[in-house]
């Protein structure tokens, strides 16, 4: 692990600098480490540092450190915590998780995220938009659907890394439309600029990506939005939702927090209480608004059950996309498709 930054402000010093004290209950944790994977495709770079800052400024912890975790994304829930055993209130550790980690664990045939760690909370989400160049012949989502149904193999869609949130969403869209998911053509790019270049030069016909990140290009008229994955329309993006387009699907590239697998009941309760206070903190809500993140808070047993369902759904799509040999939750030998 490599330290990204160490925030040494105590709650009292933060108050002296003009920071609020959250809900007035005082620091829940003396020292907290927020681990953030650095593997390509994780998609939530920098959130650990921002969260650590809010935690100290809001008086929820005395000190917080954002720590980069450079291991494999799929095994991060199993490996990142090491031999750490708490107690959480004295020195806690949290791991940033997101949909790409769920998919990576399935593709790598390691323990599912929900089983390899303690699911604590889903914090925020980032909606996805399907865009084409302003001069594209695909004027509407209906045009896109018609072409996809006519010949899926002729329509290449780009997005973030293969097997990641955009790829899984494209598979879900194809499935909902009755298209043979195995025929979908997808090109994954680790760098947003590479995906944008691929769209500009015509290597891909359309692009799936963060609505938050692509909005400036949409507002400037350089990209045309066809549909968004949110349940309601997004301000500044003139495009219908998938639900409005008769695709019964709502999908968010979510981000949340995990604890060590073997947390004691007391440590889990303390961690869940901290997550509740994070979501309620005005400074956290202000940060979400400024970053364009949607608060999709879900914690404890409800988050665990949701994560089980989401893992099964993701695994099924990965199998249909040809990235896994089996859609079963447990495979004998490797579940990864071999050439």
Description:
It is a single chain. By secondary structure, this protein is of the alpha/beta class. It has two domains: 2-125 and 252-320, D-Maltodextrin-Binding Protein, domain 2 (3-Layer(aba) Sandwich), CATH 3.40.190.150; 126-228, Periplasmic binding protein-like II (D-Maltodextrin-Binding Protein, domain 2, 3-Layer(aba) Sandwich), CATH 3.40.190.10. 36% of the residues lie in helices and 24% in strands. The protein has twelve helices and eleven strands. It has helices spanning 11-16, 47-57, 76-79, 99-107, 113-116, 141-150, 165-176, 192-201, 211-219, 265-280, 282-291, 300-320; strands at 2-7, 29-37, 61-69, 91-98, 118-133, 156-159, 185-188, 206-210, 223-228, 252-259, 294-299. Strands 1, 2, 3, 4, 5, 6, 7, 8, 9, 10 and 11 form an eleven-stranded mixed sheet that branches. Helix 7 packs across helix 12 (300-320). The longest helix is centred in the C-terminal third of the chain and has 21 residues, at 300-320. It is globular and about 60 Å long.
Cα-to-Cα separation, first versus last residue: 34 Å
What name does the CATH topology of the largest domain carry? D-Maltodextrin-Binding Protein, domain 2
User: Uncertain regions: pLDDT < 50 for 5+ in a row?
Assistant: 1-22, 329-339
For the record, the CATH class of the largest domain is: Alpha Beta
Please work out how many helical segments DSSP would assign. Answer: 12
Find the structural class using helix and strand composition.
alpha/beta
Q: Tell me how many strands there are.
A: 11
- The proportion of residues forming helix, as a percent range, comes to 25-40%
Question: CATH superfamily of the largest domain, called what?
Answer: Bordetella uptake gene, domain 1
* Overall domain count: 2
Oligomer classification: single chain
Beta fraction: 15-25%
Shape: globular
| Mean of pLDDT | 87
Cα-based radius of gyration, to the nearest Å: 21 Å
Order of helices and strands: EHEHEHEHHEHEHEHEHEEHHEH
Named CATH architecture of the largest domain: 3-Layer(aba) Sandwich
Largest sheet, in brief, is: 11 strands, mixed
């Amino acid at each position: 692990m490599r330290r990204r930054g160490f925030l040494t402000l105590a709650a009292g010093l933060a108050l002296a600098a003009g920071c609020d004290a959250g809900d007035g209950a005082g620091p829940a944790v003396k020292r907290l480490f927020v681990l953030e994977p650095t593997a390509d495709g994780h998609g939530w770079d920098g959130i650990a540092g921002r969260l650590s800052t809010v935690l100290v400024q809001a008086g929820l912890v005395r000190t917080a450190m954002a720590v980069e975790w450079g291991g494999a994304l799929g095994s991060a829930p199993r490996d990142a915590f090491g031999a750490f055993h708490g107690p959480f209130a004295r020195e806690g550790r949290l791991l940033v998780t997101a949909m790409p980690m769920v998919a990576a664990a399935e593709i790598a045939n390691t323990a599912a995220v929900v089983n390899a760690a303690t699911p604590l909370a889903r914090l925020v989400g980032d909606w996805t938009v399907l865009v084409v160049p302003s001069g594209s012949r695909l004027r509407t989502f209906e045009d896109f659907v018609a072409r996809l149904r006519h010949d899926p193999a002729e329509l290449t869609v780009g997005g973030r890394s293969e097997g990641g949130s955009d790829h899984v969403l494209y598979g879900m869209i194809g499935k909902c439309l009755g298209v043979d998911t195995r025929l979908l053509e997808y090109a994954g790019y680790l760098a947003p600029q590479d995906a944008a270049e691929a769209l500009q030069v015509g290597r891909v016909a359309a692009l799936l990506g963060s609505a938050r990140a692509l909005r400036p290009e949409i507002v400037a008229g350089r990209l045309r939005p066809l549909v968004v994955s949110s349940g309601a329309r997004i301000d500044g993006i003139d495009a219908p939702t998938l639900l409005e387009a008769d695709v019964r699907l709502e999908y968010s590239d979510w981000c949340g927090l995990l604890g060590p697998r073997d947390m004691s009941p007391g440590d889990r309760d303390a961690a869940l209480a901290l997550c509740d206070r994070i979501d309620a903190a005005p400074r956290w809500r202000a940060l979400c608004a400024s970053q364009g993140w949607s608060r999709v808070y879900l914690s404890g047993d409800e988050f665990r059950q949701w994560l089980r369902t989401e893992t099964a759904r993701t695994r099924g799509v990965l199998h249909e996309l040809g990235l896994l040999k089996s859609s079963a939750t447990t495979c004998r030998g490797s579940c990864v498709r071999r050439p």
